[in-house]
Design brief:
Keywords: Cytoplasm, DNA-binding
Number of helices: 4
Pfam families: Histone_HNS (PF00816)
Subcellular location: Cytoplasm, Nucleoid
Region (Disordered): 57-95
Distance between the termini: 106 Å
Helix content: 40-55%
Number of strands: 2
Family: Belongs to the histone-like protein H-NS family.
Largest sheet: 2 strands, antiparallel
């Protein structure tokens, strides 16, 4: 069944490709069906189920005494927004999206400039750090005074 492809016109070649793809799809479906029937017969003979042989994701029960992650499945508020397309956001977790990488390549653009809320953060950590720094500075100053006396 050798076909000389060099003598076929573009439309004949396209028809040949379409026929071959349809034939390949049918052959794949038949193969899948054959494998399924073989697997079903093996499972029936052994008295097992597919779930017993292959554990599916999410069906695994938590072991007693283990605490499950209570944050799993919760959504995280986005921290960064694309200035060119406001619908694109990023939480700051995981791999950087391509728009973040492209924006950072531009001159003058920093990760802080992409923060939602014009770069103003509303965390309480900054005042705590400043307070701790002030306390450490005061302790060092008192230690120097005692050392002089």
């Amino acid at each position: 069944m050798a076909v000389n492809l060099k003598v076929l016109s573009p439309s004949e070649l396209q028809a040949l490709i379409n026929n071959a793809q349809a034939q390949m799809s049918d052959a794949r479906k038949n193969l899948v069906q054959d494998v399924r029937t073989k697997i079903d017969s093996i499972l029936k003979e052994s008295g097992l189920t597919l779930d017993e042989v292959y554990h599916r994701r999410g069906t695994k029960k938590a072991k007693p005494g283990k605490v499950s992650n209570s944050l799993k499945g919760t959504t995280i508020a986005p921290k960064y927004r694309n200035p060119e397309d406001a619908s694109q956001t990023w939480t700051g977790r995981g791999r950087k999206p391509s728009w973040v990488a492209e924006a950072l390549r531009k001159r003058g653009v920093t990760l802080d400039s992409l923060l939602i809320g014009n770069g103003k953060t509303t965390t309480k950590k900054a005042p705590k750090k400043a307070a701790k720094k002030a306390v450490k500075k005061a302790v060092k100053k008192m230690a120097r005074r005692k050392a002089k006396v």
